[in-house]
């Protein structure tokens, strides 16, 4: 049977995630309220603005029930702002910004600087044969906090520093970039194959 994937639809690129998952045959439930969380096999947290999504999660009463499902092992994919929301620590977040702490990374918001705030680059991703088009928009960068976090892709800065941009810990995946803003379905497919 097709899996039912919740896409958090409070703000950001939720329509694009919905379209990508439906193209792959998944049933998608857009999540705006606690009752939308019933019966999900996984959740996707889109890119957008993490402070806004955090605020709307609180005001809709969805933060706590979603946090509980994630604690009980609900698989998750977070892209960009979604990566920030899944991270253990936000290094430069707003004081009232909450996150689910479900992947052992710290994130720096806008890690790629203001001048190169948005860019595209071909990424080598572990387990994918061909490069993946990485679309970065005011993207966060990850710092690995726990050894069980696997880095599936990283970007090399001019300084030589390697910034992880695709991380996985168990069934939680987080990308700095936006696979939903490309026609390439391989990352969503990878997610669905590892539920
Ligand atoms: N910088 C944004 C934030 O902090 C994320 C940007 C994005 O999702 N494209 O939420």
Structure in words:
The structure is a single chain. The chain has 5 helices and 12 strands. It is globular and about 45 Å long. By secondary structure, the protein is α/β, with parallel strands linked by helices. The strands form 3 sheets. Strands 2-1-3-4-12-11-10 form a 7-stranded mixed sheet. It has a 3-stranded mixed sheet with strand order 5-6-9. Strands 7-8 form a two-stranded antiparallel ribbon. It has one domain: Class I glutamine amidotransferase (GATase) domain (Rossmann fold, 3-Layer(aba) Sandwich). The two termini are 13 Å apart. The mean pLDDT is 95. Bound molecules: glutamine. The site of glutamine has 11 residues, from helix 4.
Short note summarizing the structure:
The chain is built from 5 helices and 12 strands. By secondary structure, it is α/β, with parallel strands linked by helices.
């Amino acid at each position: 049977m097709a899996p039912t994937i919740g896409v958090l639809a409070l703000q950001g690129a939720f329509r694009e995630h919905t379209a990508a998952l439906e193209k792959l045959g998944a049933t998608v439930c857009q999540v705006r309220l606690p009752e939308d969380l019933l019966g999900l096999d996984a959740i996707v947290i889109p890119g957008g603005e993490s402070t806004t999504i955090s605020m709307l999660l609180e005001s809709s009463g969805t933060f706590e029930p979603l946090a509980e499902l994630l604690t009980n092992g609900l698989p998750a994919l977070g892209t960009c702002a979604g990566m920030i929301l899944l991270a253990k620590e936000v290094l430069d977040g707003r004081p009232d910004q909450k996150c689910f702490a479900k992947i052992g990374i710290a994130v720096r918001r806008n890690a790629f600087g203001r001048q190169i705030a948005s860019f595209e680059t071909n990424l080598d991703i572990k387990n994918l044969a061909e490069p993946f088009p990485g679309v970065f928009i005011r993207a966060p960068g990850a710092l690995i906090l726990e050894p069980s976090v696997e880095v599936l892709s990283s970007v090399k800065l001019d300084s030589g520093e390697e910034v992880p941009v695709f991380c996985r810990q168990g069934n939680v995946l987080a990308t700095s970039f936006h696979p939903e803003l490309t026609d390439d379905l391989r990352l969503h497919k990878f997610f669905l194959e590892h539920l």
